[in-house]
Amino acid sequence: MTPKKPTPKTKPSLAEALRAAVLDSGMSINAIAARSGVPQPVLQRFASGQRDNIRLDTASKLAEFFGMHLTTPKAPRT
């Protein structure tokens, strides 16, 4: 299964942005897992696209490792 990449005109989802950071880092899955605190099997399945979903605590660890910030989107005005 090929991991999904965001199209140039759309903002990537959290999972897409984190997956891209993992794949574009040039680091091995084992190194990222060891340094980020994310279990290697979880990271491997996520990076390979076998899992599209990512838990918030896992996303938080990866975001911190890659210097990214998680924010809550504002509710649309009605």
Write up this protein.
With 78 residues, the protein is mostly helical. The model has no long low-confidence stretch (mean pLDDT 87). 49% of the residues lie in helices and 0% in strands. The chain is built from four helices and no strands.
Q: What keyword list fits this structure?
A:
single chain, 49% helix, 0% strand
Low-confidence stretches: none
Order of helices and strands: HHHH
Task: Give Rg in angstroms.
Answer: 13 Å
Structural class: mainly alpha
Helix content: 40-55%
- Beta-strand level of the residues, as a percent range? under 5%
Q: Total helix count?
A: 4
User: What summary fits the major beta sheet?
Assistant: none
Shape descriptor reads elongated
> What is the rounded distance between the termini?
40 Å
Number of strands: 0
Mean pLDDT: 87
In short, what is this structure?
The protein is mostly helical.
List the helices and strands and how they pair.
Layout: H1 14-24, H2 29-36, H3 40-48, H4 56-65
